[in-house]
Automatic annotation (TrEMBL):
It comes from Ferrovibrio xuzhouensis. This is Biotin synthase. Pfam families: BATS (PF06968), Radical_SAM (PF04055). Its cofactor is [2Fe-2S] cluster; [4Fe-4S] cluster. Binds 1 [2Fe-2S] cluster. The cluster is coordinated with 3 cysteines and 1 arginine. Binds 1 [4Fe-4S] cluster. The cluster is coordinated with 3 cysteines and an exchangeable S-adenosyl-L-methionine.
């Protein structure tokens, strides 16, 4: 993207360097950041990162699919939609004990947060009761808890909070303009409503999107603009690279350029300075060098383990070697983000 004429880029980069929390970002400013020379952009992201976080620490989460497949929604990227023939079989909600076993293993492998994902449009009230028991027991192991269960009512959000849920993940996925080309079974506003219900309970919000959905550069600007102008920044911002899965409408889509992906991470870091930025899905398909660039651009969280929900993630051996090579150490608790929402 070329630089928009109306932005004083020197003034903007100087202001960004202070790493202040702003909710009044304009799309023009965000587009101007995307258009910086790559070295200037990554340097600025590093400056911001170092003002808010310890430079070489990365937070480690583990994911578990507690309810796989058979989802009625039509998210064009997702292997778990019942509308696409992807070979993912629909399963029932897992037992509490089997979930706990996975949580103990996650803790032993160094994760500080355990995220439970369910392929639901929205949970039923009886699901909330069972997931609530899982949350309480996972928390009792000394792990932070996170769940991603689809749309929530205010009452469901409160019940999850009361069970001990620390974070709720619900992504905006892309810009408001591109959204309709990806999902037709729920609206952008539905997602914003769930995010507001979660925020109202006092739980922390994990909300991000996906690069590689056939979006234009302006749509990446639009996604980050939506995130950074929420009433409070999400404490955690996952930036996923689309994992292409056979049978989904987006399989075979032109793959985004790695440098553009890193730019998206860098701009997220700069405009949401106190949020954890997660280098999320898609690491299995990335080189060590691309991941290193993403960390340099301010990513400071990843999913550990050899599986995401249904697709592959680098296992312990590759990740252990990568983190050691880069001198990255695990962040025990994401304390730096506490207070980000309050500012
Ligand atoms: N069903 C719930 C929902 O959609 O809110 C929770 C689970 S859903 C799998 C969580 C997120 O995973 C999606 O919002 C999307 O951003 C991400 N995701 C799903 N499939 C993906 C894929 N193939 N590549 C990258 N990210 C993906
Ligand atoms: C998020 O933003 N990415 C994670 C997590 N939140 C739940 C999910 C990635 C799923 C990738 C496709 C799969 O494994 O099924
Ligand atoms: Fe269902 Fe979530 Fe997949 Fe969409 S992303 S199809 S809501 S599991």
């Amino acid at each position: 993207m070329t630089q928009p004429a109306s932005v004083d880029i020197a003034a903007l980069t100087q202001r960004c360097g202070a790493a202040e929390i702003r909710h009044d970002w304009s799309r023009t400013e965000i587009a101007a950041l995307f258009g910086l020379p790559f070295a200037d952009l990554v340097f600025l992201a590093q400056q911001v990162h170092r003002r808010r976080f310890s430079a070489n620490e990365v937070q480690l989460s583990t994911l578990l699919s507690i309810k796989t497949g058979g989802c009625p929604e039509d998210c064009a990227y997702c292997p778990q939609s019942a509308q696409f023939d992807t070979g993912v079989e629909a399963e029932k909600l897992m037992d509490v004990e089997a979930t706990l076993e996975a949580a103990r293993a996650a803790k032993a492998s160094g994760a500080s947060r355990f995220c439970m994902g369910a392929a639901w449009r929205s949970p039923k009230d009886r699901d909330i009761e069972k997931v609530g028991r899982m949350i309480a027991e996972v928390k009792a192991l000394g792990l932070e808890t996170c769940a991603t269960l689809g749309m929530l009512t205010p009452d469901q959000a409160r019940r999850l909070r009361d069970a001990g849920l620390d974070y709720y993940n619900h992504n905006l996925d892309t810009s408001p303009e591109h959204y309709g080309a990806i999902i037709t079974t729920r609206t952008y506003q539905d997602r914003l409503d769930t995010l507001a219900h979660v925020r109202d309970t006092g739980m922390k919000v994990c909300c991000g999107g996906i690069v590689g959905l056939g979006e234009k550069p302006e749509d990446r600007v639009g996604l980050l603009h939506s995130l950074a102008t929420l009433p409070a920044h999400p404490e955690s911002v996952p930036i996923n690279m689309l994992v292409q899965v056979e049978g989904t409408p987006l399989n075979g889509q032109a793959k985004p350029d790695g440098i553009d992906f890193v730019r998206t991470i860098a701009v997220a870091r700069i405009i949401m300075p106190a949020s954890m930025v997660r280098l999320s899905a898609g690491r299995e398909q990335m080189s060590d060098e691309l991941q290193a660039l993403a960390f340099l651009a301010g990513a400071n969280s990843v999913f550990l383990g050899d599986k995401l929900l249904t697709t592959k993630n680098p296992g312990q051996d590759r990740d252990g070697a990568l983190l050691a090579k880069l001198g990255i150490t695990p962040m025990l608790y994401a304390t730096a983000e506490i207070g980000a929402a309050a500012e």
